[in-house]
Amino acid sequence: MFSSLALHLTSRSTVLAIHKINAVFLNNMTEIFSYTACRQLSQLLTSIIFFHVSEYILAITFHGRSSVTLSSLLISKNYLFAMAFSLLEYIVEIIFFPGLKDHWRVSNIGLVMIIIGEIIRKMAIITAGRAFTHLIRIYHVDDHPLITHGIYSVVRHPSYCGFFIWSVGTQVMLCNPISTLGFIVVVWNFFARRIPYEEFFLRQFFGPEYEEYARRVPSGVPFVK
Ligand SMILES: C[S@@+](CC[C@H](N)C(=O)[O-])C[C@H]1O[C@@H](n2cnc3c(N)ncnc32)[C@H](O)[C@@H]1O
């Protein structure tokens, strides 16, 4: 009799545990499919698709289909890792701290950053035209003039400035505190090393003309000379 009572109690507690797990699961699913998550994740997806497809179309427009590779889509392993990490952060936080994602003023500032960053970057690509290559040129070619007009008269590296704002904006829009800091550090470091490397060759190509341009116009990436 005792054993059947024990069995009954065990199966009852098992059923209760399953109900509890189901409730937690359903609650988590409700958070994941909430209005907040649907809106923020669809904004992220739209921004990413628009950014990469337009990069690809502009690269084809200026350089022709044959010289455009996957790198023109700017999808690297590090980039995929960073985006995957930010998605993981988003999912964990929306399950355990859903209130964190409801800061709409912050999220909308992120959205504005995405739009401004995108506009600056695309203005840079269109202004530089064929001079804009995704891989840094290390040999001078005849049809590569120094671009100093338009947005290049305001900052020397508008496409990097635009990407910096765009990428950090994606994380601000998602209200992801860890990835926002992570993106600021990683993207800034990347450009802080890339800009001197790129300018080493630009100084070789254009000599005093580039020196004078660099003295006059700021880089466009904070704290990078
Ligand atoms: C990915 S693009 C980035 C251009 C620029 N750093 C920017 O942020 O807009 C890199 C290529 O642009 C070329 N480039 C950079 N600044 C330039 C300028 N002011 N005029 C002409 N070519 C430039 C470099 O030689 C390099 O091959």
Total of helices: 7
Strand content: under 5%
- Our measurement of the CA-to-CA distance between the termini, rounded to an integer number of angstroms, reads 83 Å
Write out the distinct hetero groups bound to the structure: S-adenosylmethionine
User: What is the number of strand segments?
Assistant: 0
* Helix content, binned percent: over 70%
Largest sheet: none
Q: Uncertain segments of ≥5 residues (pLDDT<50)?
A: none
* Arithmetic mean pLDDT: 90
Rounded to an integer, what's the Rg over CA atoms? 24 Å
Run of helices and strands = HHHHHHH
Taken from the alpha-carbon principal axes, the silhouette is elongated
Name the structural class: mainly alpha
Catalytic activity: [protein]-C-terminal S-[(2E,6E)-farnesyl]-L-cysteine + S-adenosyl-L-methionine = [protein]-C-terminal S-[(2E,6E)-farnesyl]-L-cysteine methyl ester + S-adenosyl-L-homocysteine
Family: Belongs to the class VI-like SAM-binding methyltransferase superfamily. Isoprenylcysteine carboxyl methyltransferase family.
Pfam families: ICMT (PF04140)
GO molecular function: protein C-terminal S-isoprenylcysteine carboxyl O-methyltransferase activity
Give an overview in words.
With 225 residues, the chain is an all-alpha fold. It is 71% helix and 0% strand. The chain is built from seven helices and no strands. The longest helix has 31 residues, at 2-32. It is elongated and about 90 Å long. The protein starts with a helix and ends in a 9-residue tail after the last helix. Residues 124, 128, 131-134, 136-137, 146-147, 152, 157-160, 198, 202 line the site of S-adenosylmethionine. It is an enzyme of class 2 (transferase). The chain crosses the membrane at residues 41-58, 79-97, 103-120.
